[in-house]
Design goal:
It contains 12 helices and 8 strands. The protein is of the alpha/beta class and 249 residues long. The protein has one domain: TIM Barrel, CATH 3.20.20. Helix 11 links the parallel strand 7 and strand 8. It binds 1,3-dihydroxyacetonephosphate.
């Protein structure tokens, strides 16, 4: 069965609640596409107004992070149940900015993935290598390690429902996109890794995105690759260009 394309915006730390509502209105008609899952992953404070703003449209809402504990004394954190109750369907886990700036390691990310799935959220699990790692020739080893650690104890059925985003760190916010062949090589290797840990059917079902300087001009070629099922988009998700990524010409 063909995998359904998924294009998600990662707004990062951008958009006040009122700006968020205005952006939803601006993008509303541009992101209509019955064949694509369109998701806005937004800052926590924007979740409630964005869920309201996209009601009745094809857009789903995602969070950019969550904590793995059920509830309690974890000042400043947000639980999976809170996200679910607010109308969130997806959650980004393990973005390289969280790994780097907030020191999130694979053991923690594994707990987050399991909790998100248990709560009925779809994790968008991020992985990716630094420029230094690429130059050392360890890209595929590194990515395989991240995937294996982050998916410990996750069932085949759960993995089949997930989204994995390959985001080379050197391509994020730099305007330096991986070539479609470079992106396909790693996305294909991720799928092969899933087949190795689980089975072919699970590998065929899991959706794999590319992220890193995706824009209206390069989306068509990237998404045309057999193992790339869509994109996780930073900068270009905050403007009209996002419509061209959802509907590449
Ligand atoms: P840019 O699209 O701005 O490069 O960001 C990619 C990203 O980090 C999405 O999660």
């Amino acid at each position: 069965m063909a995998r359904r394309r998924i294009v998600a915006g990662n707004w990062k730390m951008n958009m006040t609640p009122s700006e968020a509502v205005a952006l939803c209105a601006q993008l509303k008609d541009l992101v209509v596409n019955d064949e694509v899952d369109v998701v806005y992953c937004v800052p926590a404070i924007d979740i409630v107004p964005v869920v309201e703003a996209v009601k009745g449209t094809n857009v789903k809402v995602g969070a950019e992070n969550m904590y793995f504990e059920e509830k309690g004394a974890y000042t400043g954190e947000i639980s999976a149940a809170m996200l679910k109750d607010a109308g969130v369907e997806y959650v980004i886990i393990g973005h390289s900015e969280r790994r780097d700036y907030f020191k999130e390691d694979d053991a923690l990310l594994n707990k987050k993935v399991k909790k998100a799935l248990e709560a009925g959220l779809t994790p968008i699990l991020c992985c990716g290598e630094s420029l230094e790692q690429r130059e050392m020739g360890i890209t595929l080893d590194w990515i395989r390690m991240q995937i294996k650690c982050d998916l410990q104890g996750v069932t085949a059925e759960q993995v089949a429902s997930m989204v994995i985003a390959y985001e080379p760190i050197w391509a994020i916010g730099t305007g330096k996109t991986a070539t479609s062949d470079q992106a396909e090589e790693v996305c294909g290797a991720i799928r092969a890794c899933i087949a190795e840990i689980y089975d072919e059917a699970t590998a065929e079902a899991v959706r794999i995105q590319y992220g890193g300087s995706v824009n209206g001009g390069n989306a068509k070629e990237l998404f045309g690759k057999p193992d790339i099922d869509g994109g996780l988009v930073g900068g270009a998700s905050l403007k009209a260009d996002f419509g061209k990524i959802v509907n590449p010409e």
